[in-house]
Write a structure and sequence with these properties.
Length: 268
């Protein structure tokens, strides 16, 4: 066996400078991550009033306790588009690779505590990359959705290329890579397509709303009057339309359903 030798001198001044620079960069990166979490934490009262968990809490509940978790692309969109101060980094999505019921998965969650989880061009590119990672590594995908869809300030940069995400969902299903989605709240426009194209869909009763356009736009376009629940509520989608298969009572119950589904897919 060949011997690997290194000319690196950990006692040299160059090594010390490089180490210090790297540690400073890591510290700056962690500070940005914390800014985003703090911004979301500022919405805690609003979420608790609705009986909801914050997006990071949803991810934590989904993952196996104490298991490895690798966050991905937390700097997506940093100080780009509407992100003036770095507090919206991540492109509207929390994502990473972790374990759900012992199965290594690609996990995503709409960061609905920040601008309703809407997707910027950077967030779209992040999603496309995540789907590629899932396909290349045959990772099941679990998504926790509550999103207003595309950020309409950048509609021209999102709508056309955004269609690739839906084509990719079809490719994942065709390849036998399961997609499980829990809808925790409003899922409008692109936020509704994604659950609708998933293999297993869980909706939270009295909270999940899935439609391409809400009641105000329906009334303006057709004159028809409908409530959120009539147009795209959880009970309508599970009991009438058949868009979803599982009805949950709250955020935690929705995540329990997702874990139960994963445990029964025989993927270990």
């Amino acid at each position: 066996m060949p011997v690997l030798e290194s000319a690196l001198d950990p006692n040299s001044e160059e090594y010390r400078q490089n180490r210090d620079a790297l540690l400073q960069a890591v510290e700056e990166f962690r500070a940005i991550e914390q800014q985003v979490r703090d911004t979301a934490e500022g919405k805690r009262e609003k979420f608790e009033k609705r009986g909801q968990l914050l997006p990071h809490e949803r991810v934590a509940r989904l993952l196996d306790p104490g298991s490895p978790y690798l966050s991905l692309m937390n700097l997506a969109g940093y100080k780009m588009h509407d992100d003036k101060d770095g507090t919206e980094a991540g492109g509207g999505t929390i994502a990473g690779i972790g374990y759900v019921c012992g199965v290594r998965c690609l996990v995503t969650a709409s960061n609905s505590a920040i601008k309703g989880g809407t997707v910027t061009p950077s967030g779209l590119h992040k999603t496309l990359r995540l789907q590629r990672i899932a396909q290349e590594n045959r990772l099941p995908m679990v998504s926790l959705v509550e999103s207003g869809g595309a950020n309409l300030n950048y509609a021209a940069d999102v709508f056309v290329e955004g269609a690739r995400t839906f084509a990719n969902q079809a490719r994942l299903s065709a390849a036998g890579i399961p997609q499980i989605t829990v809808v925790h709240g409003n899922a409008t426009a692109g936020g509704a397509y994604q659950p609708g194209l998933s293999d297993y869909v869980v909706l939270v009763r009295n909270r999940a709303k899935m439609f391409l356009a809400g009641p105000p736009l329906l009334k303006a376009a057709t004159g028809e009057i409908a409530t959120d629940e009539e147009l795209g509520g959880a009970e309508m989608h599970t009991g009438v339309a058949g868009t979803a298969e599982y009805l949950a009572e709250n955020d935690a119950d929705g995540i329990r359903h997702a874990r139960d589904i994963m445990s029964k897919l025989g993927l270990r």
